[in-house]
Specification:
The C terminus is likely disordered. It contains 8 helices and 5 strands, in the order H-H-H-H-H-H-E-H-H-E-E-E-E. The termini are far apart. It has a 3-stranded mixed sheet. It has a two-stranded antiparallel ribbon with strand order 4-5. With about 300 residues, the protein is mainly α. Helix 1 runs antiparallel to helix 5.
């Protein structure tokens, strides 16, 4: 391994060191909570919406804090590889791996995890800052112990994927020193597709619990079938799930992931239906006093409404 290739490794490391379940952590400004609850809201729907002053101030405060976090985090992400090189950690990991074995694959098995773990540990203050913001502004209810467990799981996934990518990178560089960037890009495409395919089947269940909707809310399955039937779509009940997102998050998320047989999204055009179990309320014009409060919007089902909806 040559030092001049270390920066290329850093690029791969940062790609795989991102949050895996960011995919379940869709960041958004605090919603106004429940939409208008006044009596006129049940008449003609308002053309515009203005949140209450306190919630508006909270949204502005979160936006400023979020941008501050993103800016400082981006600067730190640039500084981290420079610090690793300045402290000669990467060359030290390389030399140690070369002393352990003369076989290149074994060297990668020692070198890449150490480098990825170093990057992860240097970035954990910003990961914790991000979670603190989410808790402070009501976007997360996840306890710190649970968050730390998810962080460690994410690091294990990053170590596995990162080690594979680093091994491929150096193999391609040795084969084609001039066009390695192109061949590496080609070799990564099937890996990215494979990860995207298995994410809802293997990766996401490591962070959230998925339960067949038939088990938790069979009456909702019947309503979903009515809706998708009107769209000329057939989704068998065994492919409808409930995700316990509310155990960690409070925001709304379309949860679009996977493709083909693993596709998951709560819209009528998907091959499987997913219920993001965080409840919310949307105000529609009622036709009669006996009309139910809870309704569906674009096949995203509303299953609970606060009093006064």
């Amino acid at each position: 391994m040559k030092t001049k290739h270390l920066l290329g490794v850093f690029v791969i490391c940062f790609i795989v060191s991102g949050d895996s379940y960011a995919k379940g952590r869709a960041q958004q400004t605090p919603d106004a909570g429940d939409r208008a609850t006044t009596s006129e809201a049940f008449g003609k729907p308002p053309s515009t919406y203005s949140p209450p002053p306190d919630q508006y101030e909270k949204a502005v405060a979160y936006s400023a804090a979020h941008y501050r976090h993103a800016l400082i985090g981006s600067l730190w992400a640039i500084l981290v590889p420079l610090l690793i090189l300045r402290w000669r950690l990467a060359p030290g990991y390389r030399d140690w791996a070369e002393r352990v074995s003369a076989r290149r694959f074994v060297q990668v098995l020692f070198y890449a995890p150490l480098l990825l773990l170093t990057i992860g540990l240097l970035g954990i203050p910003f990961d914790a800052w991000d979670h603190w913001l989410a808790r402070a502004f009501g976007l997360s209810v996840q306890a710190w112990g649970s968050w730390l467990g998810d962080w460690m799981t994410n690091q294990v996934i990053a170590l596995i994927l990162g080690t594979l990518l680093v091994w491929i990178l150096y193999a391609v560089i040795r084969r084609s020193p001039r066009r390695w960037w192109f061949y590496f890009w080609l070799s990564v495409i099937p890996i990215v597709l494979a990860v995207f395919f298995i994410q809802p089947l293997v990766i996401d269940p490591l962070f959230f619990k998925f339960t067949p909707l038939q088990t938790t809310q069979p009456e909702l399955v019947l309503k979903l079938e009515q809706v998708i039937h009107r769209g000329a779509i057939e989704i068998p009940p065994e492919r409808m799930f409930e995700m316990n997102a509310s155990s960690k998050l409070t925001g709304l998320n379309a949860y679009v992931t996977g493709f083909g047989a693993s596709k998951r999204r709560p819209k009528c055009s998907s091959s499987s239906a997913m219920r993001w179990d965080i409840t919310f309320c949307i105000t529609f014009q009622r036709k009669s006093a006996s009309s139910p409060c809870c309704c569906s919007l674009s096949c995203i089902w509303v299953t609970g409404c606060p009093s006064g909806c």
